[in-house]
Amino acid sequence: MSAEDRVRHYYDALRSGDSLAPFFATGEGVVKVGISERLVGHDEVAAGLRDQTETTTGWTVESRDLRVTERDSHAWFADSVWLAWTDTDLNVRYEFDTRWSGTLERREVDAATGNGGATESDHGTENDDTGQVWQFVGMHVSTARDLG
Questions:
Q1: CB of 14 within 8 A of CB of 53?
Q2: What is the pTM of this model?
Q3: Where are the domains of the chain?
Q4: Backbone angles phi, psi at 3, to 5 degrees
Q5: What is the mean pLDDT of residues 1-7?
Q6: Residue 124 contacts residue 136 (beta carbons within 8 Å)
Q7: What does residue 51 show for φ and ψ, rounded to 5 degrees?
Q8: Mode of pairing for the β-strands spanning 38-40 and 31-33
């Protein structure tokens, strides 16, 4: 699986309400910045994503300009994404034009977990023919605001 495929699988999992933590590498150096939060370390990222999955529904994720550059063991990406979801606690629908960027690292598949060291498993852990899987080590999602 290519790094681009991995990003697209993440979008699919987000739309489907599947577990997102397996897409992220383990370790304290992992960072995920969202529109309204900053999560550091795999445990915090996993907890934040679990909470997000439990309290949201109806995700729309429309990639408009995905660009991925892949090297031997690292890749980076940027995208413009139309993003919408419903917060089930507040019963509010959110819609944003967002900007995404991030870094992935190719990691060995852990025999115990079936992925690159994450503690959960789902379709997001599909590895390539090398026995490795692309994992996010950094992700940033933001929305533009006019300064004027």
A1: no
A2: 0.88
A3: 3-120+132-143
A4: -65, -35
A5: 97
A6: no
A7: -60, -45
A8: antiparallel
- CATH (residue range 3-120+132-143): 3.10.450.50
Question: What average pLDDT does range 62-89 have in this prediction?
Answer: 98
Q: The tokens 């994503």 sit on which residue?
A: 49
Say which residues have a Cβ less than 8 Å from residue 114's Cβ, sequence separation at least 6. Answer: 121, 125
Instruction: Evaluate if residue 126 carries a pLDDT over 60.
Output: no
List beta partners, residue 38. Answer: 33
Q: Among 55, 82, 74, which Cα is nearest to 141's?
A: 82
Give the C-alpha separation, 95 to 84, whole Å: 4
pLDDT band at 145 (very low <50, low <70, confident <90, very high): confident
Identify the sign of the CA torsion 33, 26, 43, 29. Answer: negative
